Amino acid sequence: MTIEVRVPQLPESVADATLVAWHKKPGESVVRDENLVDLETDKVVLEVPAPVAGVLKEIKLKDGTTVTSGQLLAVIEEGAAAATGAGAAAAGRAASASTAAGAAKSAAKDAPGPQTIAGKLSPAAKRVAEENKVDPKSVAGSGRDGRVSKSDVVNYLQAKDAAPTPAPSAAPAPNPAAKAPAQFVPAPSARGTRAEQHVPMTRLRARIAERMVQAQATQALLTSFNEVDLKAVNELRARYKDQFEKQYGVKLGFMSFFTKACVEALKKFPSVNASVDGNDIVYHEYFDVGVAVSTDRGLIVPVLRDADQMSFADIEKAIANFAGRARAGTITMEELTGGTFTITNGGVFGSLLSTPIVNSPQSAILGMHKIQDRAVVIDGQVLVRPMMYIALTYDHRIIDGREAVQFLVTVKQCLEDPARMVLSI
Predict the structure, then answer these.
(1) What's residue 177's pLDDT?
(2) Tell me, which fold does domain 2-78 have in CATH?
(3) Does the annotation mark 284 as catalytic?
(4) Domain 204-423 has what CATH class?
């Protein structure tokens, strides 16, 4: 009995997907729920599992095809087994012939072509490896179960390029009698040939580019800044970090403090939590806070639903879970949809100051930055404190400068005196 494998129902916000890579070939056995093919949307990579066990009889669409919900991908012969007996013998003879042909080609010293990529590679890593003719066996994977990510392949290529080249043979001694005019000799390039690579954008990167340009083209974006003394937060974390981790099984980080502080500020200034819909302003009476997470595919923003009702431990657990599953490619579409406000932390990469771009259709985003010891004047004394610049980019169409500044002041006050977040003052 033949069973059709079709594109699963895509969410309403996703019109189509790209067929990234097949994990099985026609004629190969498959087991129920085994991943057959990866589909990349502008947010996540979806896996299409085998609905039944059997043999993959036919593949209808090739890699790189744009697909929509319900489109036929492949056909499985249910209950069938891979070729055995005479078929296996024929396959063996074919394999032997192929091996002999390969040996003959090697003897002829033909130039090597693109290598077939196998093993646990992410779709992005596979694409980069094939384009640069990299043997995946030579790349160490840093992901779960040894999975090779795009960054692993890029790091391998960079290390290869940086490898020292053999020293050139000694040049003959110059003839003093010769009076040839001096000539300019350019210094050899440290990287050898000046190569260029044209790599198509992934759907996620293309979508990020589209949304960023859209936000800047359709919103009146402006950024306000302030700075926060994190001494009180540092002391609180140092005092309770061991007890917190022992009780809740997760570390007490900075993001829970900033999320709580932003929620308190959003309650005071509803326009920062609002969005524009045509000529209407939509005031959201809930607080779904997006937290930007960096992955090897690009930046994604999973959402903390009803963040105002979450404890510090709930927030830290959710963020740790999001980060792990986002980098492993297992985060769901629903977890990336919606959000009324976003927090992004460029400080983890060393950024001292930036102007983040609003995640449309939201109207504001808070940017965190690097914590740096700086001299500040407090009560007439110059003291060294752990300071962080914070930035609020906002849509000036519905958020006035006064509200933006007071929003940042509220965040600052909550972080410099964390008891405010407990008392909601």
Answers:
(1) 47
(2) OB fold (Dihydrolipoamide Acetyltransferase, E2P) (2.40.50)
(3) no
(4) alpha beta
CA distances in angstroms from 339 to 145, 342, 418, listed in the order given: 32, 7, 25
Determine which one of 135, 242, 396, 417 is catalytic.
Answer: 396
Average pLDDT for 331-356: 91
Going by C-alpha positions, the residue among 82, 49, 67, 57 that lies closest to residue 3 is 57
**229 an active-site residue?**
no
Q: Return the pLDDT at 346.
A: 93
SS3 236: helix
Distance CA 384, CA 6 (A): 62
Q: How far is CA 142 from CA 152, 156, 202, 327, in A?
A: 7, 12, 21, 11
Domain boundaries, the chain: 2-78, 204-423
Q: Which residue has the tokens 């003897």?
A: 107
Element containing residue 36 per DSSP (H, E): strand 35-40
> Catalytic: which of 33, 161, 400, 417?
400
pLDDT at residue 119 above 60? no
Closest to 69 measured CA to CA, from 52, 35, 46: 46
Contact in structure between 99 and 91 (CB atoms under 8 Å): no
pLDDT at 178 over 60: no
Task: For residues 126 and 62, give the distance between their C-alpha atoms in angstroms, rounded to a whole number.
Answer: 15
By the 10 Å C-beta count (0-12 exposed, 13-18 middle, 19+ buried), 227 is classed as middle
- The mean predicted confidence, pLDDT, of the chain is 81
Give per-residue pLDDT as tens, 246-281: 999 999 999 999 999 999 999 999 999 999 999 999
